[in-house]
């Protein structure tokens, strides 16, 4: 299969020089900071938020709604970016994120907060996917490792700043500012992107895969609802319950329809032929299992610190610093090493092994433990994750047709986010069900007046601190005893990822940026194609080959 792309005579080519690349990269960094900050800023404020809005038993939905919306939005942004260009979808994503941040800060009920978090996810999904695709558009895979370092540092900085800022705002002006602070940052990011992202836009007469969009959204939602069944207030998985049974059957039918539709339409939302590509399949499965483990672990650690270790809101943010230091260190070092050597397989293999060790160590969490020991545990976890996340995206983008950079990137990330949504929902279900039983034991036999309002659902760190002994110690132990064993459920998933990584085959990194390969740009000094020049892209990788031909995906032929 090949694609012939001739530059339109009325559309000047983008000239990629170092100044243009850094200008576009700077705009992406500003917007990526906005999205990554919001994934962590709410974490330290979570116990206070759900306690005030009486949603402790359903707190996983504040995270799950965001991740679910990101998962649904990702394939849309990836596909539409490939078809119509990435500039306007990117600006829409920033705008959605800003509006949702304003609404989230004004939420007066737990349900309203979850709804606004979902809208935030619709914007956040675009920010992440389009940023990754645009970087692949302007920077060759062989040089992209140099930029992975600053990207890793950005995620590390935002991951550090998020918990710290979230804690400071919660202790100071209030948790609502953890949402409102995104508004001025988002407006600035939108303005920078509007000026700097001078990317080509184009029309497409290809049909929209409405059936795929609908069944993807319904199937994704059904999967998450099934895994969140207990956290939605249901008493276990009673398969005689017609609602639960109907949800299971309906989800299975919708997923089957999605597969059928994607195999029949001419322009599928997620082309299933991508799975014929060995690199795409392996990295996608790694992302799936990593998402199930990584986000689950990160989502509940601040809660543990506040409720079990007796840390304040701001202090719990500070105590997450070692994890982010691990992510920053290994992502920066591995990025520069990949750019220098062109080899990348060893990093996800080592990273997954280190992540397994970190998760096993986290099963030893207990109330009142040494915070130095806790810091060492999460540093190991972060170091493992830093070796994996950017590397598998690079591997995917390097193995597919340049015309499908957005679709392949979003499809790969989609399955990672599905894993994150399912993993977080399942993990919080295990945690909250154990917590409910443990708290019931703590409060059993106490006079009605001595039990906190709302029982366990109304607990906040401040209320826990004010409880008399031995009631306070009982609550602290209940949180620790509920969280630590739950990590054992994640270890087998990451082991599967490690085994998959051993079968990952390295493909020589391309020396050509995506827009150059598609005939939309030229590198300064190389000269633009003459009038009848044609860019021919051989798509063996997209068709499923992982052999030597993959190494020369793009040839420029001057007729």
Describe the structure.
By secondary structure, this protein is mainly α. Helices cover 66% and strands 3% of the residues. The protein is built from 21 helices and five strands. Strands 1-4-5 form a three-stranded antiparallel β-sheet, with no helix packed on it. It has a two-stranded parallel ribbon with strand order 2-3. It starts with a strand and ends with a strand. The relative contact order is 0.16. The N terminus and C terminus are likely disordered. Keywords: Cell membrane, Membrane, Transmembrane, Transmembrane helix, Transport. It comes from Promicromonospora thailandica. It is a multi-pass membrane protein.
Strand content: under 5%
How would you write the strand order of the largest sheet?
1-4-5
The general outline is: globular
Please count the beta strands (DSSP E, at least 2 residues each): 5
End-to-end distance, in Å? 20 Å
Pattern of helices and strands: EEHHHHHHHHHHHHHHHHHHHHEEHE
- Structural class call reads mainly alpha
Mean pLDDT: 78
Proportion in helices: 55-70%
Radius of gyration: 24 Å
InterPro entries: EmrB-like, MFS, MFS_dom, MFS_trans_sf, Tet-R_TetA/multi-R_MdtG-like
Family: Belongs to the major facilitator superfamily. TCR/Tet family.
GO molecular function: transmembrane transporter activity
Organism: Promicromonospora thailandica
């Amino acid at each position: 299969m090949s694609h012939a792309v001739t530059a339109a005579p009325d559309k000047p080519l983008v000239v990629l020089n170092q100044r243009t690349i850094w200008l576009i990269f700077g705009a992406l960094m500003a917007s990526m900071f906005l999205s990554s900050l919001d994934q962590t800023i709410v974490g330290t404020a979570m116990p206070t938020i759900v306690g005030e809005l009486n949603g402790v038993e359903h707190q996983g939905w504040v995270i799950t709604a965001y991740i679910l919306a990101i998962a649904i939005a990702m394939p849309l942004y990836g596909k539409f970016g490939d078809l119509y260009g990435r500039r306007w979808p990117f600006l829409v994503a920033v705008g959605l994120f800003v509006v949702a941040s304003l609404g989230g800060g004004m939420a007066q009920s737990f349900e309203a907060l979850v709804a606004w978090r979902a809208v935030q996810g619709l914007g956040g999904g675009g920010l992440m996917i389009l940023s990754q695709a645009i970087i692949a558009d302007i920077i060759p895979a062989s040089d992209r490792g140099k930029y992975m370092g600053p990207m890793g540092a950005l995620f590390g900085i935002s991951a550090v700043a998020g918990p710290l800022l979230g804690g400071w705002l919660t202790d100071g002006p209030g948790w609502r500012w953890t949402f409102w602070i995104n508004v001025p940052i988002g407006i600035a990011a939108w303005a920078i992107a509007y000026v700097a992202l001078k990317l080509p836009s184009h029309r497409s007469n290809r049909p929209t895969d409405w059936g795929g969009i609908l069944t993807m959204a319904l199937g994704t939602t059904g999967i998450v609802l099934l895994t969140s069944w207990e956290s939605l207030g249901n008493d276990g998985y009673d398969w005689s319950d017609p609602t639960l049974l109907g949800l299971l059957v309906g989800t299975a039918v919708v997923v089957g329809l999605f597969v059928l539709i994607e195999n029949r339409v001419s322009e599928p939302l997620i082309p299933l032929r991508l799975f014929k590509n060995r690199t795409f399949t392996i990295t996608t499965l790694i992302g799936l299992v990593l998402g199930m483990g990584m986000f689950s672990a990160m989502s509940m650690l601040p809660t543990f610190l506040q409720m079990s270790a007796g840390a304040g809101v701001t202090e719990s943010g500070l105590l997450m610093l070692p994890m982010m230091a691990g992510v920053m260190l290994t992502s920066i070092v591995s990025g520069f090493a990949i750019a220098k050597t062109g080899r990348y397989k060893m990093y996800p293999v080592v990273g997954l092994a280190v992540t397994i060790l970190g998760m096993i160590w986290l099963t030893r969490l207990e109330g009142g433990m040494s915070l130095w020991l806790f810091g060492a545990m999460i540093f190991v976890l972060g170091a493992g994750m830093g070796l994996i996340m950017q590397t598998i995206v690079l591997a995917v983008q390097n193995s597919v047709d340049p015309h499908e950079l957005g679709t392949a990137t979003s499809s790969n990330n989609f399955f990672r986010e599905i894993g994150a949504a399912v993993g977080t929902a399942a993990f919080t279900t295990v945690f909250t069900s154990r917590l409910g039983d443990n708290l019931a034991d703590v409060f059993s036999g106490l006079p009605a007046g001595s039990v906190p309002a709302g029982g366990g659902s109304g607990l906040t760190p401040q209320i826990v601190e004010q409880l008399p002994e031995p009631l306070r110690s009982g609550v602290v132990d209940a949180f620790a005893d509920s969280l630590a064993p739950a990590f054992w459920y994640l270890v087998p998933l990451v082991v599967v990822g490690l085994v998959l990584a051993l079968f990952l085959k390295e493909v020589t990194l391309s020396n050509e940026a995506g827009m150059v390969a598609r005939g939309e740009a030229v590198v300064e000094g190389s000269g633009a194609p003459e009038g009848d020049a044609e860019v021919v892209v051989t798509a063996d990788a997209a068709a499923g080959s992982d052999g030597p031909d993959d190494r020369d995906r793009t040839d420029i032929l001057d007729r």
